[in-house]
Specification:
- It is built from six helices and seven strands; from the N terminus they run αβββαβαβααββα.
- It has about 200 residues and is an alpha/beta fold.
- The chain has a seven-stranded mixed β-sheet.
Length: about 200
Amino acid sequence: MRNPKPKEWQAKDYSKNYIADYKPFNFVDGEGVRNSLYVSGCLFACEGCFNKAVQSFRYGQPFTPELEEQMIKDLAPEYVQGLTLLGGEPFLNTEVCLQVINHTKEVYGSKKDIWSWSGYTFEELLQDTDDKLEMLAKIDILVDGRFELSKKNLNLQFRGSSNQRIIDVAKSLEIGQAVIWEKCHDADTQYEQIKKQDLI
């Protein structure tokens, strides 16, 4: 796992504006029905990463205006709660992400919420480049921190390891420290993970 210094990694130096996938109308990437954009490229190289292919900034295909328009259209139904940005690392793809965020807010205002996952912590983002700070200020929920295999926990809501947090961004920025999302709740019961060999 890599731990960058503030402003060491800049989106302008790495991002190719590629996306790995777009999944509309899903139930797993945050609260409610969501439309999820998976951007390509990540430098954290967390041990146990579930999708190493997406670490490449040229994985997938270029983001297009046609896809952007489709995403805005897919947000229209009332049952769609919002937009989710993941990857890859969204905060190393700020051009694409800010474009989608700004367009979403232009059309829907605050009617649709915006979530993002990031390997960066909230505190790291506060010390980083202007584009990262702008993106942070424009999202509602941040799921932060590197995935740590030694802290993996299947009972956690919307995250993979116990160091990661679900953060209410507006409240956090107001007081200058991370405030945990008030709806965060993890499971109490421990479930044994099914291993591949058990299925054979």
